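Q: I'm writing up a methods section and want to include an example of the input and output format. Could you take the sequence below and give the corresponding predicted structure tokens, formatted cleanly so I can copy it straight into the document?
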Amino acid sequence: MSFVDKLKTEVAAFFETNEGETFRAQEVHDHFGAQDKKLRNLLNDTIHELEEEGKLRRHSGNTYGATAATPDAALVGKVDHVNRNFAFVIIDGRDDDIYVETENLKGAMDTDIVRLEVTRDGGGRDGKRTEGRVVEVLERGRPEVVGVIEIWPKYALVEPDHRKIYDPIHIPIDEIGGANDGEKVIALIEQWPSRTRKPEGRIIEVLGKAGENNAEMHAILAEFGLPIHFPKHVEREAEAIPDKIPQKEIENRRDMREVATFTIDPADAKDFDDALSVQYLENGNVEIGIHIADVSYYVRPDTELEKEAYLRATSVYLVDRTVPMLPEKLSNGLCSLRPNEDRLAFSAVFEMTTKGKLVGEWFGRTVIHSDRRFSYEEAQEVIETGAGDYPEILTLLNNLAKTLRKERFRKGAINFETVEVKFRLDENGKPLGIYQKERKDSNKLIEEFMLLANRRVAEFVYKLSKGKNKNTMVYRVHEAPDPEKLKSFATFVAKLGYKVETDEEKEIARSMNHMLEEVEGKPEQNLVESLAVRTMAKARYTTEDLGHFGLAFRRYSHFTSPIRRYPDVMAHRLLQHYLDGGASPKAEPYDEACKHSSERERMAAEAERASIKYKQVEYMSMMDHSQEFDGIITGVTDFGIFVEITATASEGLIRISDLDGDYYELDKENYRLIGQRTKKIYTFGDSVKVKVKDTNLARRSMDLLLADSPDSHSRSRRNEAAKSSSPRGNQRSIGATKQKKRAGSPVPMPKKKGGGRRRRK
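A: Here is the clean output for your methods example:
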């Protein structure tokens, strides 16, 4: 045993012998008689090593003691590194998150899975937080980091784009992968950080010049761990699928090619995974077919296509592109219900009266032929004018959809109408304008029939069950809101003059809908609707039969979008299995796939929002800094106020240092800042006029000034001059980190929703 190893053993034994006591480093020096400076330094290094290994624990006053084996050491959670100086560890099933100072993370990074112990139990009382330290990093969550590379003579640094990674990645000069200074790159971390060592790695992909649209969109995908390209072997397997439908397959299906059939989708859509058919019956009723692309016919278990579809779990919709779950041969070709082509479908066919009463249903595989492709705008024009293709059928469907919608609300569905932000882009992806997409009857028509199919498929599978053991099924569930979150939301909107009931579950939906009707058309509409959505529990996939609170459905599945959602593929397979008389399979594999799909959906949604935020900031960076915008205060903190610009739904920060003429303090209980001399108040929900002070594309953040600030005009001119003379322009860091509400943290700024795709319920 070397001298260093022997010394380490003796130091560890000293602390174990004196378990329960703490010692300063100087006291350890004295115990070992360390008069020599080198020995003292060696002892210090040994203490730090034992701390990193979890054998010692550092206490207040820079004292150290042996780590006690307590039940808390078994706590496992995910790191949320919200600030350079501290993080929270989120533990499933625990109400409060555990506060950990960065120096006690043991080198853990954001999203890492760690084992930790509690060093101070706040007990959730009086706002006191529970604190802890990481004992062991169990699983690394983010091995690939996206950022801008800075190349120096002997090494390079990658400055991460991600807001929650605070240290640059050190890259040996021979591992830069051909990157040039200032380019967006993906770095693979090969040496993880510790308390005293920064992360190191190598460049695995060069995305392009920072600021270029393609490079930035690829960077967003990589930042959230989403794929950019399909592996070649997956593409080859897709290309090998025959284009022609075998006659034998047609003979095994219900042939509905002669029934009037059409699709209604966005004008720029390329994949059409649902179609409607209508035919009148002799008894006066109408038969409505909801036809869904039969992806499960082409994507078979244990194939490369299946593995890739499972891995992706969802298509991703960025501002300027779709990253599909399936290769183009399938997503835009064989599985897409394109007009004037025979296609294989999985169908839900309903017999209804013209008053909207459901009297019969059939589920099974079909072959269809779409006669017409409508855009939403084209279908809306037919509905409004009665002229064009299928006016009678579209009018009937619209009336039936309104009946179904009215019945949903009568039973307690909540009328969420969140704003969808859209962009006009030039050929290079540069934003020329921002607008908020309006949902009209044609959108709602499609939505209602998709909801009908999803609900009835779930009910059908459930009712096929025999005995107490119910059939395994993939459900889309949405639980009732957490009472505390609901009360917090009610307090927020009360400041704006709106009321939401929180005591009785049956009254929540009614009062929420009434409030949403009241806020429609007001400046705060987008803010309140976004807050309302976030107050609700997050919808997710599971095999548990928990119902859907927001839609007021006892059972609900996802059946209607298998081109872009893996859970729909699972639902198709299970439905066909039961139609064939199969017994219920074990739920565990499906539940694991549900958890994976829910997580991938969350990451895709975050990437979508990041792309929207990037384009919003890019668009606002082109504005004249003297231009004034109407805005509304969406968050109040001790470092400033967040404002959403109404016209563009983009959000920025007015720093407290830019609030002139007074010293402002946070009144946390009332969500406002108060000037100590003038008593001027800035509160949540206030309307304000603002100007753009500065933008930071790298951080997707924006600083604002109040338009009536005495110095706003001169400051804006100074920023314009500084930006034009700076070699990196508006890339310099100015952003503030938005924080999840925790005990002892500032009043939270509500995070932006926006940009969601249709039919995600």
